[in-house]
TrEMBL record:
GO terms for molecular function: 2 iron, 2 sulfur cluster binding; metal ion binding; oxidoreductase activity. It comes from Pseudonocardia kunmingensis. Residues 2-78 form the 2Fe-2S ferredoxin-type domain. Keywords: 2Fe-2S, Iron, Iron-sulfur, Metal-binding, Oxidoreductase. This is Carbon-monoxide dehydrogenase small subunit/isoquinoline 1-oxidoreductase alpha subunit. The lineage of its organism: Bacteria, Bacillati, Actinomycetota, Actinomycetes, Pseudonocardiales. InterPro entries: 2Fe-2S-bd (IPR002888), 2Fe-2S-bd_dom_sf (IPR036884), 2Fe-2S_ferredoxin-like_sf (IPR036010), 2Fe-2S_ferredoxin-type (IPR001041), 2Fe2S_fd_BS (IPR006058), Beta-grasp_dom_sf (IPR012675), Diverse_Oxidoreductases (IPR051452). The keyword Ribonucleoprotein does not apply. It holds the Pfam family Fer2.
Length: 154
């Protein structure tokens, strides 16, 4: 086991991880960040998405020790009034909510890279995330709304 540190949602956290421990498990079990979830276990659904240095990572595939010293953003670190979170709530972009944290973080990544994406760019950026409830239209509307609101404050 190795002692490693992350900065998770702005807070420095010391954890212990073995060479085979997954970032998802360390974040959930040691840090207490439960928004990243295991959906498929093979990095294909997006439920485990976290942002490391602003870039999306499938935490169900990532070895925890590899990210020693990294800045990690999880969806539960975003305030309820964050423009993306608020847009998801306003548009009803969820049913069960299991996949939504991954979609929120993918939207955050997209809007940082491209503050005014087209609908096609939104769809393309989110294509690696799966919503089994089928709220894709609402999710796309939420990202469009968040983009509008964030652009208005720039």
């Amino acid at each position: 086991m190795s002692e490693i540190e992350y900065v998770v949602n702005g807070t420095r956290r010391a954890v212990r991880a073995g060479d085979d421990d997954l970032l998802l498990d360390v974040l959930r079990e040691q840090v207490g960040s439960t928004s990243a979830r295991e959906g498929c276990g093979v990095g294909a659904c997006g439920a485990c998405t976290v942002l490391v240095g602003g870039h999306s990572v499938s935490s169900c595939l990532a070895r925890a020790v590899r990210y020693d010293g990294a800045e990690i953003q999880t969806a539960d670190g975003l305030p309820p009034d964050h423009p993306i979170v608020a847009a998801f709530v306003q548009t009803g972009a969820m049913q069960c909510g299991y996949c939504i944290p991954g979609f929120v973080l993918m939207a955050d990544e997209l809007l940082r890279e491209n503050p005014r994406p087209t609908k096609e760019q939104i769809v393309a950026h989110l294509e690696g995330n799966i919503c089994r409830c089928g709220t894709y239209a609402e999710i796309i509307a939420a990202v469009e709304l968040a983009a509008e609101r964030m652009a208005a404050t720039r």
